[in-house]
Write a structure and sequence with these properties.
about 10% strand; about 170 residues; NADH Oxidase; alpha+beta; three-stranded antiparallel β-sheet; Nitroreductase; 2 domains
Length: about 170
């Protein structure tokens, strides 16, 4: 398992080496976003490389359930924030890929599509595709929809402590 982190620790050291004060720059939302994006890009490249070698991968977001403990175990300094894990290995079974949300929901050309009725129509169709996928995969024991899963997940109010933890580690203060 690999753990991908937003990492500005070496940048803090660089500021110290150059005799400069870094707090405002290192604590900015912009650098926080850069660190997040860099980690996500590195993880995606690792996932693609692993899959190209016939390995399976699974992203593990649950390590954010206890960032304090993950940081302690990995002995992470300030300005290093664990974001997610990536397990890599040989799959015991290769399942059918879950149908993905349509391109029209993730790609917009010359402006963002905001027609609510189009979204409702497209999401209803996708819900049926997902429901059918789960019924087939579980022998009828599960019939979730994408909108149902999304709302259920977002209603849980999980990991609300993350905001304060991020600031404690030195990120996203300004």
């Amino acid at each position: 398992m690999f753990v991908f982190c937003a990492d500005l620790y070496r940048h803090r050291i660089a500021f110290e080496m150059e005799g400069e004060q870094a707090a405002k720059n290192l604590e900015s939302t912009e650098l926080f976003m850069v660190a997040l994006i860099d980690a996500a890009l590195a993880a995606q490249n690792a996932a693609l490389a692993a899959e190209s070698m016939g390995l399976g991968i699974c992203y593990i977001g649950s390590l954010r359930n206890d960032l304090e403990e993950v940081s302690r175990i990995l002995d992470l300094p300030d300005f290093v924030l664990p974001l997610f894990g990536l397990t890599v290995g040989y799959p015991a079974k290769i399942n059918e890929q879950k149908p993905r949300l349509g391109l029209e929901h993730i790609y917009h050309e010359n402006g963002y599509e905001k027609d609510k009725n189009k979204y409702i129509e497209q999401l209803r169709a996708y819900n049926e595709t997902v429901r059918s996928y789960y019924r087939k995969r579980t022998g009828g024991l599960r019939a979730d929809t994408w909108t149902g899963q999304a709302v259920k997940t977002l209603m849980k109010n999980e990991r609300l402590y993350v905001h304060d933890y991020i600031k404690k580690k030195g990120f996203n203060k300004i």
